Amino acid sequence: MRVNLRKFNEEGLSEYILFLDNIRILKSDEDPPFHLLSDPQYSEELILSDGREIRINTDQEFETQIDFGDYLLSLFRTEEDRSKVLDDEKGGSWLALAFFKSICKRRKDKTWRVKELARYRLDLEGRQKLYRHLVCGVLATYSIHRERSRLFLYGPLHKHARTLDVVGSAEELMLNPRLVKVLDLLYWDEKKNKPKARTTSNTRPLDEGVLYRFIGPGSFIKQFEQTYDFWTMSSEEILDLLPAEFDKWLEK
Amino acid sequence: MPSEKKYTESQFANLWGRSQGILKEEVKLEIVPDTEPKQVKLLFKSSRKTDPIPPNAEVRLYLRHHLRLIDAKIGEKSIVFKNGGYESETFSLARFGKRWNKTRWQIKVTTNEDPGRVWAWTESQSILKGDSIITHDGEGILFIRKGKLPKEIAWKLDFPPEGPTIIIDVDVSKLEELLKKKSLVSALLVPEWISSILDEMIKLHLDGELLNAAENTWQSKWLNWFGIKYPKNQHKFVEDMDLDDVIEIMNWSLEIKTSLKKTIEQQSIIELVLKDEVNY
Questions:
Q1: pLDDT tens for residues B245-267?
Q2: Min distance A251 CA to chain B CA atoms (Å)
Q3: Chain Cα centroid distance, residue B236
Q4: From the CA of A227, how many Å to the nearest CA of chain B?
Q5: What is the count of structural domains for chain A?
Q6: Strands B58-65 and B39-44
Q7: Residues of B whose CB is below 8 A from A227
Q8: What is the extent of the structural domain holding A52?
Q9: ipTM above threshold 0.90
């Protein structure tokens, strides 16, 4: 199905939320309400800054979230345009419905393997976990870090990586390309093309050098962020500052 | 071995030895009236804390929200922190869209000669930070401020990183005064807020923001205020939790709520109200 880029109106958003409730709570096996995407009763035009007409193929498949992020960035090229979906629940949730078949999988009995609501509905009033939204989170992350976002966006579209969950909530880290480069050097497995084994291990006491020792209670970031300004440091300078417990992760 | 909290604090203390520390009264942020998109400016004044900072140190402003950032150089320390004060240029919040009011800001004073060195900083805080109405160890843990709320909503609780904040609708702003003192209104509403705050803490914990009394988060400050140890559950997504994990969390919540009944002293306040010793 091909549709022009639009955004929900109030009624469309309510209908989409009703669909999410049906498949989450009632375990309904109904199909996504794709008619909301183009029906003027439920949605309205979303005009980009350069006036481009965007056609979206709801059946388009992407191997990884990186590929998806690259595609989304080709649609929303400017910060102003990205703001039209990242800062607008009606725009972000419309996009989630457009790609719903990719971001939510079905069981054999056709019911949906639906996860936390924040992955499908852009909730800007609550705790604003933008990074958990399986479309807007990908767009926001990829637009900051491009290929370097592989540590967070290596998986298929319906998976929310644990690495992204740990780092996404720490905005001061997530926004800093130099820190993300350090994370990539520490935790990315070039051979297996995914994060190194045990990167997000959280068994207590924590293993030396795991991601939770980098960010989290009592971590490297928490100890150094007050008296070191990571924005004015190079990745190499940050690496030099790391305690010895991280050395073996660089060697892996 | 010292407790996790003491261990972390000692590490912080060692690191702070190389800096002048946190700036409070020295830096104020103001929203420029009648601007659309909203603009902010900063007011600086020197103090004994800023005097030892080298004159060529750089004063930097970080504004961030919703995975977007403004990183601006305000100027050299000798210009910014000088006798008589200094007013910065204005900065537009257009980049943060319609929810600009959620933007957080921080000032860091850095130096090129020692890469990454921070001479002084302000805490990272919301642009619209409220007045504290409950403090613990000298720090605010519950804040209050006025704001425009939807029709028929007199107040709501918001949870910015510095701590739970009660937003009072501007049309019923007198409510703020009643809430700041012992009154029937506060005696009835405070338990409701604290219950909501507990719910939020549990929700965040279940959602992966592990409660940890040693951490510098609003949840940890409330934990320390409660004086109740955090649960031993490991960080798990809700979908990974089993029944035992949930029961442990619920028992922990019950323990806190039981403890709070004594802390809140609601009964005593109501008794005073009934005896006409405090106002409604």
A1: 778 777 877 777 776 666 656 66
A2: 25
A3: 25
A4: 5
A5: 2
A6: unpaired
A7: 15-16, 18-19, 117-118
A8: 1-159
A9: no
